[in-house]
Amino acid sequence: MSGLVVDVSKCRGCGRCVRACASQGIVIQQRLAQVTPNCIACGMCIDACPFDALSIVKDAVDTKSDANGVWVFAQYDSGALAAVTLELLGKARELADDSNTSLTALLAIDSEQECNEIAQKLIAHGADRVLICVDNRFANHTTNVFAAWICDMVNEYSPAILLIGATNFGRELAPCVAAQLRTGLTADCTVLAMDKETGLLHQTRPAFGGNLMATIMCPNHRPQMSTVRPGIFPPSEYCESRTGEIIHTKLRDSIEPNVTLLEKLPDDAGDSLLDDDTLVVVGRGIGSQKNLPLMQKFADLIHAGLGCSRPLVESGWLEYKHQVGQTGLAVAPKVLISIGVSGAIQHLAGIGSAETIIAINPDASAPIHSVATYSIKNDALEVVKELVEQLQP
Amino acid sequence: MVEIKKMALDYLDFLRDESRSIGEAESISFPVTEEDVCDILSKLSLNKTPVTIQGGRTGLAAGAVPHGGHVLNLTKMNRITGLYTNSDDSGHLRYILQVQPGVVLSQMRKDLEDKNISTTGWSQEAIETLESLYAGPEHFFPTDPTEISATVGGMVACNASGARTYYYGPIRPHVFGIRMVLANGDIISLKRGEVFAQGQSLTLTTLKNRTISVSLPSYQMPHVKNASGYFAAPDIDAIDLIIGSDGTLGVITQIDLELLPLPQVIWGVSCFFTEETQALDFTVLVRNEITHAAALEFFDDHALDILRSQKEKGGLFASLPAIDPLAHCCVYVDLHCNSEEEAYSDLYHIGELLSSCGASEHNTWAARTALDKEAQRFFRHAVPESVNMLIDERRQTNPSITKLGSDMSVPNDKLYAVIELYRSTLKEAGLESAAWGHIGNNHLHVNVLPNNMDDYALGKKLFASWAATVTSMGGAVSAEHGVGKLKRDFLITMYGEDHIREMIRTKLAFDPQGLLARGNLFSEAWLDEEVAK
Amino acid sequence: MRTLVCIKAVPSSTEVKMDPVTNTIIRDGKQSVVNPFDQAALEEAICIKEQLGGSIIVLSMGIPATEGLLRDCLSRGADRGILLSDRAFAGADTLATSYALSCALEQLRTANEFPSLIICGKMAVDGDTAQIGPELATTLGIPSIVNVEKVLAVSEEEITVRRITDLGREIVSCKLPALITVTKDIRIPRMPSIAGVRFGETGPVEVFGAQGVGADATRCGLNGSPTQVVRSFTPERTHEAITIEGTSSEQAAQLIDVLGGFGL
What we know:
The complex is a heterotrimer of chains A (393), B (533) and C (264).
Chain A lengths: L2 E4 L9 H5 L5 E4 L2 E4 L8 H5 L5 E4 L12 E5 L1 E2 L2 E2 L1 H16 L4 E7 L2 H13 L4 E6 L8 H15 L3 E5 L2 H14 L3 E5 L1 E4 L6 E7 L4 E6 L6 E5 L16 E4 L11 E6 L12 E5 L9 H10 L3 E4 L1 H5 L20 E5 L5 H7 L4 E5 L7 H4 L2 E3 L3 H12 L2
Helix pairs in contact in A: 5-6, 7-11
Chain B lengths: L4 E2 L20 E3 L4 H13 L4 E4 L15 E4 L6 E8 L5 E7 L5 H9 L10 H12 L3 E2 L11 H6 L7 H4 L6 E7 L5 E5 L9 E5 L5 E5 L22 H5 L8 E11 L3 E9 L2 H14 L3 E7 L1 H13 L15 E9 L2 H17 L7 E4 L2 H28 L6 E2 L2 E2 L5 H15 L3 E6 L4 E6 L4 H20 L15 H8 L1 H14 L13 H9 L1
Helix pairs in contact in B: 8-10, 11-12, 12-13, 13-14, 14-15
Chain C lengths: L1 E6 L1 E3 L5 E2 L6 E2 L5 E3 L1 H17 L2 E7 L4 H11 L3 E5 L9 H17 L6 E5 L10 H9 L3 E11 L3 E8 L2 E8 L2 E5 L11 H9 L2 E4 L19 E6 L8 E2 L4 H14 L3
Parallel strand pairs in C: 1-6, 1-8, 6-7, 7-13, 8-12, 9-12
Antiparallel strand pairs in C: 2-5, 3-4, 9-10, 10-11
Helix pairs in contact in C: 2-5, 3-4
């Protein structure tokens, strides 16, 4: 039987496991930890144990084949590759080199005209091979069509690793593929590395709203699948002279889109905060909704986008598209000016990739100061008033 | 020594409070310790400089709005300084938290909840007591005014209340100790249960061993929720005179607050009615039959309508739960129970009471989860907030308009009569209004929403007439906001000039020059007359 | 119309304290709640029921105590609860979880009670994977639409919704039965009435083990989970900030210099 096991020779009955457990899955009896039927084998207690007394054992299964190669799904939206595709190629190139294997890009596209150009671009960005399928059934990003083609390709070529960008579309497509292939999928990874000993992919992702990072492996199933958060890895270099193979493939005739697109609505969000090199992010500390126009003015003066912490969206001060943090956007601007944000850990998870953080918050103990490059420990409103006054022509 | 700063543009905010009236002052200081307060006051008393004491400036009666002189702002005295225990009447251990007056309620609550109270400078004994508090069942501080950015000092100064005052009383019974600096810099330190008046006369000793002889006002306080004037009755505990004295007796520098064990189960039920009389009948039934009700709050048809229209507009209030279009008014019941069984039994009993007064348990919101409770809290707090927004809109065209909010309470047997008074006189005057508040204490905030200055004048007149009628019903003209500077006339209506002059003489025992919190409770003119005598 | 809503029990707060020694999360008996996204999903189902009639099933996999959360759903307007609870389900990743849920749905199919519409929250606030919905739909062989922010029209045969995509929003439709995953903003969850609370206490909630829903043990729980957590840790943040001192006006001036250094 698989499950959580207590090594009684190591357990000292300290109870840390009990405090880490959310499901009353472990109790202390006679100074020893005992697993209860409530245990959901989530593994939280294993890390909480300072004596290494807990482990999860699993019945051995071995279904892995001689799978080989790193694959990247190239997301193509309305005439352009999604930015995350180039980021994936860079990381995947590294992983392929680390494991002495090749890098393949998957391109499903509805436009005959552009497919070769895009394929060449994928090669120039690091792919050794591009599997292409041109078919107008790919026009509307219907998941089942893409999933069917990818699964056919996987079954034919047996890749070891398949990476998909954690875009809205990627996070819908990847689980459909994983469920059909009955393999493991790790969502929204922020760190990927090859384990030198086992040759397995270590996939690290935030959980618990960014309070915890978990490293996940998929030892016995192939491909090892991850979706990868956009904006984390640098895009790969473009190298015109690189060469690679282009293979044209077919989508099965029987596959029909199971969702019908009726209308595309223009994105009223306009430009996304993700595109801004400079961001002003405001929090509760600006006091009142009445002060938002002042903040917008400051952002305009330095040509920055305006983001906010979650409480402001929850209070209805700004729309969700402005929310920065674990449950909003993970932004990576060059400069981020944080105004009146305390810096809850969820928020920090979303700004970790900013190059320079300038924090304005009167509370010297606010966590935002601990990640800031520059700190101003003063009333946010006062300082912004001054800034606007001094910046105004 | 803390600096006495000249009033400058930077400090404009300190000339006003939530009453939205604006005062004037020559200087301001932000003391950090009790010593600072003593130094500042002894210095200022030499020149007879008037001193207005401020906390969070969240008051609605302008008690913290200065009228010349010095502003003594206590917000930097914001440390929790210790914890000790004593035993209550039945011998149970009681935890008492010691705080400075500038501690903000929301912060104190959060520190308690998160078990994150800073113990810098605490005695070893206090730290150990804190550890035992953390190890045991969760504790809370029961007084819950709507405005949680209030400071504890301000709350003690106006004897603050909140929804749960219905069950837990105002802040008064939870205050177990006070240190207060007098106008001349001397200090009085009082613990509950140690110093009592002998009949009408009270003798206090300062830390410098000076004796103060106080004669208490001789009026009879109404037997209702009350924050109108000094707490005075024969043989009272000296500490009770200080609580609710609106800053007129001295500057409170330390407060000992009782913490209570948090009830095991806290649920909330909002009950909707199609007629106002059903809500009144229900209130009476709950008062008699639901012993674990900790709060009984009412929202009238206008209040619900304003909420509906604000929700419609989107923005801040779009996430309010949808209110049944047929609902006319709402009574919210807060249940504080010792077990789930008890809570279910109360909840179902409330369902039966609803049918017995013609309402239905289908038209209720029963909040048992944290999310639901948060939604209910949002709903209740959205009422005053959305009324303020409405007034702000009107102020854009007519800046002199402000909200007129009443704060009067009456005895239980006058509930129907007082509602009838409000309804008939408002209708007669043709004024727009919205009423909500603490119906469990027969204490509604009736808000007149003036469209123009005529409405405003009419509303003020109406309130003055209510003050007289409410007094004749045995009620109080200010049940929780305090008298401050805005309700002095109501206080005269309630007690009469002779009693007000008694109050002034009580004050002068503590502050012979009449320097502190001038204009609060009684007019400066009467005060100066009494000083001259 | 018959709808089914998938429910996950999550910790009441993802704001958690850390054990300074082992640097892991202390949960100290934090109460479980229904994942807020799933609450919005349930509210959508209730609105559809108010419009078209029919019934709502709530389905969850979890420890026995999860029954309480399903009863909470009943109090708000669901008609029936199904809980999958078995040690064999323990340690399930998203693949094994969606398999177990699919087994319960296959049982409903056999009983001729397969729902026309399955609604899931877009993601759970603790795991943030957003994978269960599409994996479940794929396992059941029905269409899925994720990130739905508004249901525009629904009938026994078809559903039309507005969803959020990478480039904006789309109006899409598909034939039923189908699965949609919804954003938290799709509906404001209602509170139960006292009458609802009464139904929640007594209404039908069935509890099944792996055998009870005919699940293949090798595809359940730890054994059926291709992924393994190797290590969990808290992200480290160590940092020294440069503090800008002075009056607010001086601070603003210095900050403008700093910004100038970035070419702003």
